[in-house]
Design a protein that fits this description.
The protein has a single domain, classed as Response regulator (Rossmann fold). Helix content is 36%, strand content 22%. It contains 5 helices and 7 strands; from the N terminus they run αβαβαβββαββα. It has a 5-stranded parallel beta sheet, with helices on both faces. Strands 4-5 form a two-stranded antiparallel ribbon.
Length: 128
Amino acid sequence: MENSAIELFAGKRVLIVEDEYFLADETRWKLEKAGAVVVGPVARVSAALERVENEKIDAAILDVHLEGEFVFPVAEELERRNIPFVFATAFDPSVIPVRFTGFALCEKPTELGKIAEALFGQGSADFH
């Protein structure tokens, strides 16, 4: 299932918001191999918000905790623009505000097949 689901990324512009360089780079590489156009990766909330404002984005993968700040302002802006996103975190899910509990939460290291299904597969409307 992992390989067929990851094909859902083909042709999509995906924002990666991640402050761990090697994890961000590995995710970028896997997405590009699946045919996605990667926006970023970026490691700060301000940089992510700038990308959301200035680039076409079809979906986003958000690390919850970035260099001392939470990614929730980015999630709010993506939600406002109707851009699907998932949280990818090693944190306890309880740190995520209740208003985002309907969004997919994927454990690190990121499982791109599960993320692809959450963003673009059947039932993806449940995740926004």
